[in-house]
Design brief:
Length: 172
């Protein structure tokens, strides 16, 4: 539990899943017409896919403002790193520090290196992560990291980038 600048961040409960689903699909509208058309679906994430992600160990945290969930972000330990997964803020609540508060909170939950994958066309997301201390890796490193730590289709690998935090050290 945490409270940052009037925002309350806590682990999601089962009763939050519907709201998390709603937030993901609201916020993902920003990708429509930006990411390749063959990667877009309606809804962007189905409830079955969200349940599957949770079943694979993605732990969601919700950010509440005035008692209402306005953002959600997942964290997943995979091998020797922690992944930030499915980071979304309601469209109407963007640019008020919610994403940053969630990211800071989740970063405090791990001592492992933190990796983040996103669409290469989502330049606003890349800028957000860079502003928060993450750096892009090379395409070669991205391809290697996506193979090791994520389970995504080859086409998604082509269209993605990976950002790493300061704890990340390239394996020799």
């Amino acid at each position: 539990m945490g409270s940052i600048a009037g925002l309350d961040i806590r682990p999601a409960t089962g009763s939050d899943t519907g709201t998390i689903h709603e937030i993901i699909n609201d916020a993902a509208q920003a990708y429509k017409g930006v990411i390749p058309a063959d990667r877009w679906h309606e809804p962007y994430m189905s409830m079955a896919d969200l349940d599957s992600e949770i079943g694979k160990g993605v732990r969601f945290y919700c950010c509440r403002q005035d008692g209402r969930i306005v953002g959600a972000m997942g964290i997943q330990d995979v091998k020797d790193v922690t992944l930030i997964r499915h980071a979304y803020v309601r469209t109407a609540s963007r640019r008020h520090g919610i994403g940053q508060a969630l990211l800071e909170h989740l970063n405090q939950l791990t001592t492992r290196p933190v990796l983040i994958g996103t669409w290469k066309a989502a330049t606003w997301a890349i800028r957000f992560y860079e502003k928060n201390g993450f750096r892009l890796v090379t395409d070669e490193e991205k391809n290697r990291l996506l193979r090791i730590y994520w389970t995504i289709p080859a086409r998604q690998v082509e269209e993605s980038v990976v950002l790493v935090d300061s704890k990340w050290q390239r394996a020799s």
